[in-house]
Amino acid sequence: MAQLDLSRRSVLSSGLAVGAAALIGGGATALPGGRRDILAGVSRWNDRVQAAIFDPDQLAPIYKAREITSPIPFNSFYPEGLAPAVDPVSWRLEVAGKVGRQLSLGLLDLRAFDHHEQITRLICIEGWSAVGKWAGPRLSDVLDAAGADPAARFVTLTCADGYWTSIDRPSARHAQTILALDFLDRPLPRAFGAPARLRIPTKLGFKNAKHVVRIEVTDLRAGGYWENQGYGWFAGL
Predict the structure, then answer these.
(1) Which helix (H) or strand (E) holds 94?
(2) What is the pLDDT along the chain (237 residues), one digit of tens a residue?
(3) Domain layout of the chain by residue ranges
C-alpha cells in the first residue's frame, strides 16, 4: 500500500475534516440520534488523524510587530461586559491531578518563571483571525515544576467564568504553548483572560482558555465547554 502523505494542510483540505465541520455548523447536539452518532464518529476519526500527524517540534508561524491586528475582536460565550473581573492579588492557579506535588501559584509566582514572547495568529472557528503579541511562561515549565506524570495523556483547564477545555500532552508541552500573562507588552486585559490564559497557537481559538484557575494532569479526556456541544476535540491547525 502506498504511504499516505498526511500534512495538516492536506488533511484539512480533504474530506477528513468534513465531519467536524458538519458537527460545528449543524449543531450536533440538535441532530437526530443516528445522524449525531455518525457525525460524532467522524469527529473522533478526525481527532485521531490530527493527533497522529501532529509534530511537537513544528512551530506555528511567527509574525512581525507591524502585522499585529488592531483591534483584536473579543470572543467568548458571553458579551464582553460579562467578562469576569478576577482580582489579580488574590487569584491563584491550582495545578493538580497526576503530579508529584500540587501547586497553588499566584501571579508573582508565574512571573518568576522564564517568560517567552510570541507574535502569533489566533484563528477563530467562526471564520476570523487576528495576530497578537503574547508573553508568559511555557505551560510545560509549570507542569515540570509540579512534577507532572510524563505518561499522563491529557491536561484539563478550568476557568473562572465557568469555561473549561482539555488538550493532549504533546500539545500541552509544545514550545509555543504558554500561560499568557501579558498582551502587547502590558498585563493581560480583563476581556482577553486576565490574570492568565492559555495561548496555544497550534490549535483553534476555543482551545485558548481564558481566566484559568485550575490545571489538572490526567489520563481522562475531559472534553470541554464547546467540545461537549459537538466541536472537534483535537482542534489542531
Answers:
(1) strand 93-97
(2) 333 333 444 434 333 443 444 344 445 555 565 565 666 666 676 777 887 888 989 999 999 999 999 999 999 999 999 999 999 999 999 999 999 999 999 999 999 999 999 999 999 999 999 999 999 999 999 999 999 999 999 999 999 999 999 999 999 999 999 999 999 999 999 999 999 999 999 999 999 999 999 999 999 999 999 999 999 999 998
(3) 8-53, 65-229
CATH code: domain 65-229 is: 3.90.420.10
What residues pair up with 215 in beta bridges, in sequence order? 95, 157
With 0-12 CB in 10 A as exposed, 13-18 as middle and 19+ as buried, what is 183?
buried
Q: What is the pTM of this model?
A: 0.84
- In the numeric block, which cell numbers belong to residue 98? 497526576
